[in-house]
Design brief:
The protein has about 350 residues and is mainly beta. About 5% of the residues lie in helices and about 45% in strands.
């Protein structure tokens, strides 16, 4: 089904820092009636109007071919054409590929849902197929104890046991506290941790991590060659009472916890982490999330391929960004009943 509803968001408000809210033009592409009982997860735009997405149905993918016909492919399971949990989605020409987040393999389909082939690999990461036949992926290996594991970039030929580690993106030490009632070690929620992401095609992998008072942004290509390594200072964003209180209320919901007890455990720094998450769009522009998920306005800083700042964006938080694009993004928005609509938003 193709639903065309355009929503224009005018330049009518200003973010808390004085930054103007970025004007958007958003088109509803998939209505709530098609979104099942779950939430939109992955979305991948192919050539000539093709589109693939997940909406929470276990092991299933929805595919729109170039004629506009929508089909459901896959189911939950471990057999050919089945998924324990759909991970990455993308297109190689008019061929749809989907990786399994729990089973180390990539499955290829035609745009009409016909199973073409399966490529296996190790370990279980969201593998991305490259045009030369290799699989590349971003994962991590837990070090155990109160540590935040480093991110690793892997490459492997399908069906082989040997794999190459192309890059290790290190993680800084992260302070932990004992979360009642089991006293399990929990990372301080406002710690600046390493964020990492691949580009949709797997051509580039980037990370952002604290570097003293600055932020280090580092990128490699799909062969492990360094293509960006810069240290930059990003404007500090204060940690507000509203954001801190929202996290206290969230953690205090558990049995055996109180708000005062959580305030004693969860530290409140002066500022938010410089980067909350990182994404890369198809043009290899780097998107750095600068705001907390509970803020009413989502702030993003975009970096060019050379690491220079391209611009700063601000969007209403009601749009949950799934996949950034060069001139906009794919996003989900929930109504009052919690049902989501899939939107394509363009920067005006």
């Amino acid at each position: 089904m193709r639903l065309r509803v355009l929503v224009a968001i005018a330049l009518a408000a200003r973010a808390g820092s004085g930054q103007a809210v970025t004007p958007l033009s958003c088109e509803a592409v998939v209505p709530p009636s098609d979104s099942g009982a779950g939430r939109f997860g992955r979305v991948a735009e192919g050539p000539a109007g093709r589109l693939a997405w997940t909406d929470g149905r276990p092991g299933q993918i929805l595919v729109r071919d170039r004629e506009g016909k929508v089909r459901t492919i896959g189911r939950q399971g471990g057999g050919p054409g089945e998924f324990e949990r759909v991970g990455g989605l993308g297109w190689l020409g008019d061929t749809l590929w989907a990786s399994d987040a729990l089973v180390p393999r990539v499955t290829f389909f035609s745009d009409t849902g016909r199973l073409l082939r399966v490529a296996t690999a190790t370990p279980s990461v969201d593998w991305i197929p490259r045009p030369d036949g290799r699989l590349v992926g971003l994962g991590y290996i837990s070090l155990g104890g109160p540590t935040w594991p480093p991110y690793l970039v892997f490459a492997q030929l399908p069906g082989e046991l040997r794999r190459d580690t192309l890059k290790v993106f290190p993680s800084p030490p992260v302070e932990h506290y004992k979360l009642p009632p089991q006293n399990a070690l929990n990372a301080q929620p406002f710690s600046f941790r390493t964020s990492a992401s691949p580009s949709p095609s797997g051509s580039r992998f980037c990370s952002a991590r604290p570097d003293g008072e600055a932020t280090r942004v580092e990128c490699i290509d799909d062969r492990g060659r360094s293509i960006l390594n810069v240290s930059m200072r990003l404007d500090a964003r204060p940690l507000t009472d509203a954001v801190y209180d929202s996290m206290i209320a969230l953690f205090a919901r558990g049995r055996g916890r109180t708000e005062q007890g959580m305030r004693d455990l969860i530290k409140r720094p002066r500022n938010l982490p410089a980067v909350m998450s990182l994404m890369i769009d198809p043009s290899e522009t780097i998107w750095l999330q600068r705001s907390h998920s509970s803020e009413p306005i989502a702030h993003w800083t975009r970096l060019r391929r050379d690491g220079s700042v391209r611009d700063n964006l601000a969007f209403p938080r009601r749009y949950r960004i799934l996949s950034p694009q060069e001139n906009g993004f794919w996003a989900a928005q929930a109504d009052n009943d919690g049902l989501e609509t899939l939107y394509r938003c363009r920067l005006r």
